[in-house]
Amino acid sequence: MRSYLDFEKPVAELEAKVEELRAVQGAGEAVDVADEISRLEAKAAQALKDLYAGLTPWQKTQVARHPQRPHCLDYVAGLLTEFTPFAGDRKFGEDEAIVGGFGRFRGESICVMGHEKGSTTESRLKHNFGMARPEGYRKAVRLMEMANRFDIPVVALVDTAGAYPGIDAEERGQAEAIARSTEACLALGVPNVAVIVGEGGSGGAIAIATANRVLMLEHAIYSVISPEGAASILWRDTARAQDAATNMKITAEDMIRFGVVDSIIPEPPGGAHRDPAAAVAATGDAIAEALLSLRGLDREGIRKHRRDKFLSIGKTL
Q: Of 96, 93, 210, 108, nearest to 158 (Cα)?
C-alpha cells in the first residue's frame, strides 16, 4: 500500500478517486468510466510533477526519509550478482547498521558497503535504523583494506541520520572509529564512489563517503546535523526543524553549488519510493559512469584526485 507524505495530499485525493473508479469498473457495472480514469490519472501525474518540481528543503527531507524509499540492500539486490556479505570487525562484533561485502557489478568485481535502515519494524530494529556503532565503521575499514589489497573498486551507499549516539558506542570509541574509516577512504589506492541515496547525516555519512566521486539522488539530503538537531541547538525547539532545513542548505542543488558532490542522479516522478526499480537502475548507470571516468588513473593518481577534490571544497580564490 502506498504511503503519502502530508504535502502530497492533493495527489493522494486524485489517486484515491482513480482507485474508486477502477473498483466500479472491476465490479462490471454498466458505467463507462475509462475516459474519466484516464483524465484523473493525467491530472494526478501532472499534479505530482508540479509538486516535486518545487519541493522545499523540509519537504525534500521528508522524501529522503520516506519508509518506502529503496535502501542499501535494495540497491545490492538490483545491481550486484554473486554478492557475498561480510560480517564483523574482527575486534568486537557485528553491526547490522552497515552492510557490506563483495560481488560483481556489470561483470566486474566490486566492494559495496552502505547504511541499511530496514523496511519493516523488525528489520529497522535489527539494523538500528541505519545508525552505526563503532564496529560498523571498523567493518567498513576491514572491507576497504581488503578491496585495496586486491585492486577492487569500492562503492558506498549512504543513508543514515548519523552515527549511533548511545553511551555504548561512545565507550567503544565512536569518534575514533569514524575518523579511522574516513582515513581509510582517503588512503585507498583504488577508485571509490559514494552515493547519497537518502539521508547523509554528519560524520556517520562522511565516514564512508570520502570518495573520488560523490553522487547524490535528486531528493536526498546531506548535512552536518539533522534539521531537528540544528533546531534544538539554535532555538532549543525541535518544532523549528523546517526553518533549520531551509537555512542549512542540505539539498542536492545546494551540494552541487558548493562543490560538495559531483553530480545529481534524477529520481522518478514523485521520488524514488514511487518507482524503486527505476531509481536503482539510474543509480547503477551513474556509478558505472563514475567508475569509468577514474579507470585510467594509477594508485597515486587516484589518491591525488581524491585529495585535491576535498581540499578544493570551500576555496574562494
A: 210
Q: Can you tell me the distance from the alpha carbon of 251 to that of 64, in angstroms, rounded to the nearest whole number?
A: 10
> Is residue 107's pLDDT more than 90?
yes
CA distances from 283 to 26, 47, 91 (A): 37, 25, 33
Q: What is the pLDDT of residues 48-62, one digit of tens each?
A: 888 998 899 999 999
- Is residue 111 classed exposed, middle or buried when 0-12, 13-18 and 19+ CB atoms within 10 A define those classes? buried
Torsion of CA 209, 215, 216, 221, to 10 degrees: 30
Q: Shortest CA distance to 75 belongs to which of 275, 283, 267, 218?
A: 283
How would residue 112 be classed by pLDDT, with cut points 50, 70 and 90? very high
* DSSP helix, strand, coil percent of the chain (3-state; round to 5): 55, 15, 30
The Cα–Cα gap between 264 and 279 comes to 12
Report strand pairing: 192-201 vs 108-115: unpaired
- Measured CA to CA in angstroms, residue 92 lies from 17, 99, 173, 243, 313 at distances of 54, 16, 11, 40, 35
Q: What is the pTM of this model?
A: 0.91
175-184 tens-digit pLDDT = 999 999 999 9
Report the SS3 class of residue 314: coil
pLDDT at res. 31: 58
Place of cell 494526478: 44
- As a whole number of angstroms, the distance between CA 44 and CA 84 comes to 42
Mean pLDDT along residues 144-156: 97
- In which region does residue 202 sit, left (phi positive, over 0), alpha (psi from -120 to 50) or beta (all else)? left
Dihedral over Cα of 152, 141, 287, 299: its sign: negative
Q: 100: closest CA among 140, 137, 131, 127? A: 140
